[in-house]
Predict the 3D structure of the following.
Amino acid sequence: MKFGLLFAYQTPPESGIKWSEPYQDMIKCLPMAEKLGFSSALQASHHSQPDGFCPSPLIAMAGAAAVTEKMRIGTAVLLVPLYSPLKLAEDVAVLDNLSNGRFVLGVAPGYVTEEFVAHNIPREERVTRFEETLDILQLAWKGNIFKFSGKHFKIPEARVTPVPVQSPHPPIWYGVSAKSALKRAVHRRCVQIMSPRHGINELIEHYEPYDNEAKKINWKPPERPIIRQVFIAETTEKAENIASPAVDYLYRVLYGAASAAGDRVLRNDSGAVIHDTSDVAYRTFKERYIIGSPELAIKKIKQYQQALNPTEMICWMHMPGISGADVINSMRLFAKEVMPAFS
């Protein structure tokens, strides 16, 4: 199993952290992470968030491309309906050239109402805009003159150059869980990447329609990446002292708030739906993140390995409010004590 890293650059309002600090932490840590054996650096994104959650993942990953040589870089995920399709095709093609064929485009239709309101995009159009945009991307990356006429977008004539380094185009990872969307992902030959907000049992449920559809068309997905919040320290107590406020914040202000607003359901470890952010606490979601000693991390990762057989675990270590120094310590310990158990 391979191990990557995820970034979001959130600075909780009460943390006192400068907006620039988590970006600088990423630039500083990636050359070290590459030497330690981490396989990828992926960028999460949201918009209009009070904590600075990264709204420009492609720009951030251009920075990552510049300080790495071997790691894959990419988005996990980019909220496609908020982008102009042709411009997105151009930007991704340039990033794939900049990274010399190391770019992965993780995509999703989005779900947070305020993001669509801010960008003046009707939320009810998010799925059809998402699929039309992917149609345009896959046409544009061929490098030929093309036309497109859809419900939302009409392109009388265009050509995108340069074409991506990777052929036929960079890998597309679908960050979705709806059955219909997962089936469409299979027919596009796209990899499924699941949100860290889901526990193991939910992940098993979400993989089932994807895997069944893949079998129907006799296609074997080349990868099965998963994202988890991960933080390692010498003892579980130390790891929890540092990281528990961060995951509590994440599940309260992002996943919990969306569930309370009716945008997307969040269930705790017992299966109960979150209807109020006051129902969110570190302990009620403990089964889905990996925070503790190296020994505990190995035990929990093996559980994911047995249940899901992932090819790569994307580790969200740079969580909101955690210092860069603490994350580097976690990275080093993870590479030294945890990775060898899965090599």
Observations:
- The chain has one domain: 2-229+309-342.
- The chain is about 40% helix and 15% strand.
- The first strand starts at residue 2 and ends at 7.
